Amino acid sequence: MKNREWFIPVGFVMILSVFCVELHSADMDWQGLPEGVGREEVFYTCQACHSLSLVKQQALNRQTWDRLLDWMVTEKNMPVPSLKTRTILLDYLTSHYGPKLGGSINGMPPISTIRP
Ligand code: HEC
Hints:
The chain is mostly helical. It has a domain at about 50-115. It has helices at about 5-25, 40-45, 55, 60-75, 85-95, 110-115. Heme C (HEC) binds next to helix 2, helix 3 and helix 4.
C-alpha cells in the first residue's frame, strides 16, 4: 500500500496534461472552418495571408474555386500547391463553400432575390 504513493504526483501530471490538451484544442477554433478532410490544408494555406472570412463568405463551384486558386498564385503570390494539395483544397472548398440556393454564387445576388 505504502509504495503506491508515487502515483500521486504521476497522476497529477497526467490529469494536468489532459487538461492542457483540452485547453489547446478549445483554443484552436480553425477560424470557424467546419470539420472535415482538408480543413488543415485550407487553414494553413489560406490563412497565411488573410482572414478566412474572405474564404467563408464565398459560395463557388469547383471550376471557380479552381480559377480562384490560380488567381491567388498568379496575382497574389501564393506558393503553387502540389497537385495533391490542390485536390484536397478544392474538395474541401467545394463541399463546404460550394454554390447553394439562397447563397451568393460568384458574387451574384441570391436566386431568391431575383425571382419575381
Ligand atoms: C500569398 C498570399 C495569399 C495566399 C496564400 C492566399 N491568398 Fe487569397 N488573397 C490574397 C490577397 C492579397 C487578396 C486580396 C484581398 C485582400 O486585400 O486581402 C486575397 C483575396 C482572396 C479572396 C477574396 C476575393 C475577392 O473577391 O475579393 C478569396 C476568396 C481568397 N483570397 C481565397 C483564398 C484561398 C481559398 C486561399 C487558400 C487556398 C488563399 N486565398 C490564399 C492573398 C493570398
